[in-house]
User: Fold these one by one.
Assistant:
Number 1:
Amino acid sequence: MTDTSGKIRVLIADDHGMILDVLSMFLGTQPDMHVTTTTDLDGALSAITSNGGYDVVLLDYNMPGMNGTQGLTRAIQLNKKNPVAILTGTPTKRILDESLAKGAAGLVPKTMPAKSLAIAIRFMHVGETYVPLDLMREEAAEAGEGVGKLSAREKTVLECLGEGKQNKEIANSLQLSEATIKMHVKSICKKLGANNRTHAVITARDQGLL
Amino acid sequence: MTDTSGKIRVLIADDHGMILDVLSMFLGTQPDMHVTTTTDLDGALSAITSNGGYDVVLLDYNMPGMNGTQGLTRAIQLNKKNPVAILTGTPTKRILDESLAKGAAGLVPKTMPAKSLAIAIRFMHVGETYVPLDLMREEAAEAGEGVGKLSAREKTVLECLGEGKQNKEIANSLQLSEATIKMHVKSICKKLGANNRTHAVITARDQGLL
DNA sequence: TAGGCCTACATACTTTAGTATGGGGTTTTG
DNA sequence: CAAAACCCCATACTAAAGTATGTAGGCCTA
């Protein structure tokens, strides 16, 4: 059995075999780390339980059982006060906000060089929060905050968009004027950071809003 | 300098730092492989040129300069008769078809375990074609349904629609005229039974085409 | 080789979508 | 209370999307 005394015990959960294999291999070469891996949330949770908590836990955002950041909450509860971070191939400000709100120790893009990852893990291990710089820039660029929540009307309009309806149809079915619909569509796009209705539907779907 | 005599010379081009780092590390532990890496297509092409060709080349599908499978063709020409394969995180039947049509030696999902990747590389090195089984299954399944009807071009345009691009943008990125894109969009809608581009994206997603 | 499909482009046109203003009115909240 | 956020509508405009037709070459196949 490997000696883990004094090492940072890292748990990585990811259903991408290649990434998992290769990440654990690289981090395993670090003298101060000991890596454990699982391929789904349940595996991660039971690993945390039986191990009595890991020093750092990385959870893939898209992973069997995760369901967005739902699994994150459960993992954080189990892992006591030790950091739990989100691992994702498609880092967005939305995922960042959600994750941090739920108490994640950071967000790790899979596009990050392996060496940087090792540094980020040590960073989180000492209680810091790690977030990629470019996402912070996006956050700053989006001026005010509150980008997350759509109003009630906007949600219903978004649903219509998600059915491929055009403005006039939406106006009819909601008993509103076309001008009003246009207004709502516009603010939906602004809030979602989309360029047009099609893009809005895409991003809404990606974020589980639809 | 490392001794490469007798080894399979592998070139991997990918702009995902983590994957690149960790892949080359794992494959480097294989006694019969020697790995070189680049982070964009231009780097890959010049590496191939100066090296006189690699035994196996892996190109990331989404990568600066690639533009779908356009870069694949150039790489194949440069690499003589040696295998060039596509590396992608989101393997789809569309990408498979396109790649094989252009003469790729295979399609390697990033979700593949690292050990399997090593095997796949050896497989391609001896002249075989590697494709993931599950994609072949998709192929069989889709053939039965009514939606395998989109032509190659239509599929690439559909992907662009799925990114919320507008006609002009698609035309630019595909080096086509806006009129041509409109034509493709129209026939996509007709084949999918959609009323407009947004609707087309929705139904395409629902049917797993995106 | 003729008919079919795919690809590509152009031109002209109509309809939708999106933007920019303006005007009202509610409810929520600091 | 007053600011902020929501909700509704209107007009007028620009940009984009969608429709319709015609031309044309390549490829495959019956």
Number 2:
Amino acid sequence: MAKRKDVTKEQIIEIAAMMVRTRGCNGFSTRQLADEVGISSASLHHHFTTKDDLIAAVAATCRDRVNRSQGVIAAEIEGFALHLSHSSQALGDDALLIAMLAADFPTLPAKSQDEARQLIANLRGWLSRFVAQARTDGELPEDAVPDQVAGNVLAEILGSALLQRVALPGTLPVPPMTWGWQRVD
Amino acid sequence: MAKRKDVTKEQIIEIAAMMVRTRGCNGFSTRQLADEVGISSASLHHHFTTKDDLIAAVAATCRDRVNRSQGVIAAEIEGFALHLSHSSQALGDDALLIAMLAADFPTLPAKSQDEARQLIANLRGWLSRFVAQARTDGELPEDAVPDQVAGNVLAEILGSALLQRVALPGTLPVPPMTWGWQRVD
DNA sequence: GTCTATAGACCGATAGAC
DNA sequence: GTCTATCGGTCTATAGAC
């Protein structure tokens, strides 16, 4: 009967992810996170010795989530644009989390940078493979470069997540994803 | 003959903008900025009393630049997708700067938040008007919603600026902008 | 695994001399 | 307009008791 709260790493990571989304990796302190979790700063550092370890764990957990959601999405949806629209929805809060990791990337310590890079590479790679399949199916021009299209799609997903929070209160709702493809000569 | 360096606000803003792009608003200190400029922390605070004043000035300066570049772009380019591709290029480093302001937005103090909001609203508004014109010219479907398309375009510009820095060294070059439009029912 | 207490560095900002 | 010096606060991280 856990008298001593026995907070789990998973709980900490979840709240840390929330703080990365809302404040960025450099926008919150380990103390503030500890307060939010409900433990002391020292207890937090018992679970994650350094902030680097913590952010890296947040990124790694996100990567697991994203990789799992990919299978679900691929099995359910048909059609390129529609598929990508649903991909964005499936990412949910992770779109913003990934965007913040990308924004803070140059200031992240080693482990965190490695995890963030793998997370984004995984996601882009998967999008790229889907684009390649869509091209094979005739949904895209033959000369479409899958990795480029995947980059464009991922850029819009991340950028859209950021823009949502800057909107003036009481104006423009979030633009739904409506991708397409067009040659630019 | 400025013996006392007589650093101008413009010089400070320029270097501050660089630090916002590379480290984010919460990723550098006023001390580090002062060192980079080559003056003392006290001198920096003489020009900008608070960090809020500084970031707000960076955003305001960016907005001026963006607003000026809009006229240039509109006069030179024809064609929707091609135009937008050039818009992205014209923004240059400002795309990343705007993306970082959006990422840090929730943690910014009052003045900075106001300036960042105006900057993004200006840019999106201009993109929206361009989209409306392109629709009138028959380059887009009649039921395209200009503000939504503008949001999608801006999202990709900002997201693309972020993603460029996360690329693994020695891999994927930046995907060029190749927007298009397609109904999603 | 939790805590209190604290180290040592850095933070934003100010005082006051020149 | 620049500087040195410093204030009071926060930062990440650790020591050591329970």
